[in-house]
Design brief:
447 residues, mainly alpha, globular
Length: 447
Amino acid sequence: MTNLKLAFYPSLIIFFLLTTSCSKDDQNYYQVEDLILQEKIISLYGSLDALQLPQENDLSNIPADPKNPLTPAKVALGKFLFHETGLALNPLKEMGRNTYSCASCHHAAAGFQSGNLQGIGEGGFGFGIKGETRHMSIAYLKEDLDVQPLKSPSILNTAYQKIMLWNGQFGGTAENQGTEDHWTTNTPKEKNTLGFEGLETQAIAGLDVHRLLIDVEFLENNGYKPLFDKAFPNIVEEKRYSTINAGLAIAAYERTVLANKAPFQEWLKGDANALSATEIRGANLFFGKGACFTCHSGPGLNKTGFYAIGMNDLDPNSSHIAIDEATKKGRGGFTGKEIDNYKFKIPSLYNLKYITNFGHGGSFGSIKAVINYKNKAIAENTTVPKDQLSAHFIPLNLTPNEVNDLTSFVENSLYDNNLDRYTPEQLPSGNCFPNADSESKTDMDCN
């Protein structure tokens, strides 16, 4: 679309409104809404291109950590390591050995979330269809589970965020500059001292946290050493097969996991038929009256930022673990600053259509429920002080029909239905994935 054409948009919109506002010509009305949406996005971002996600193999246009340049060999290695259940070599219980992977809590079937309220690594059994039936093994005590104290976030589009986790504690750059006093020695946060961005830091720290082990004998016996050799040819051999390099490969892979085939992405690229009339109306609300773009911005609709909007924490009656006060305070629990209390990171809005738990505490059961919550702007968590709530958390005055339209945009327009392209056909080891416990193997028909 040329700048010359864009210059005529306001006049075209006025013309269509004047000639079709009383008309029953749905096609003309659709065109008006489409033009209005284009104008809104261009006025906000300068062009439609600004919201486009690159293709997963277009490594030069995917945001990367300067200390971890993306290469096809590194991404290929990371894709395998992310799904490799054979790395589960450091379990608390022997029965957990070789049964879980990074993908246990972030898999394609659930939009790279966990598929249930809390993802479980070691101690989890079963998978179902989308991870929805994974549960705690009766052989484990709750305190022995490898489970996160908050809902497992998606890795989709995380290339567009500099720091990771709901409280942003992982990453030694960007917004975490000045938080060095909280990179506590002998904790996962110490990995921030390596100076990598959030995805890299989280992947490196996560291998230890989630009881995964980079064992040279396993790598050698399962075809991984040549993959490391291709991914890290400039690292001397005695340092090549390391936890740090494995984490860098995993992070490289994660950066390429992009929902770039969603209908909204196709519309941004010029497919005028990619969105329905309802979705176009919803998109106009997203970038207009609903003001969703204020927080959910950029190509991933997940800019780095922390906001308190009063959502509940995990329900202790349904949670696998007790939630401590630092976790409840979100960003403030990491930085120690009162102004950061109860603020949590902005998640991406892509591929939420079949998710059943939303918010850091999973307190909402649908996208529509979240939109209604933000529309009313009444905090459900009464422990969050009113003066701590974000200035953006105000009533939106959306009508029921507008809520429905906005819901349709988020559910359908942002849904990439082919995330399986990010999953290996098989692992070099031949192991089942994302889980390899007996119950998951049965669920997934994997032998």
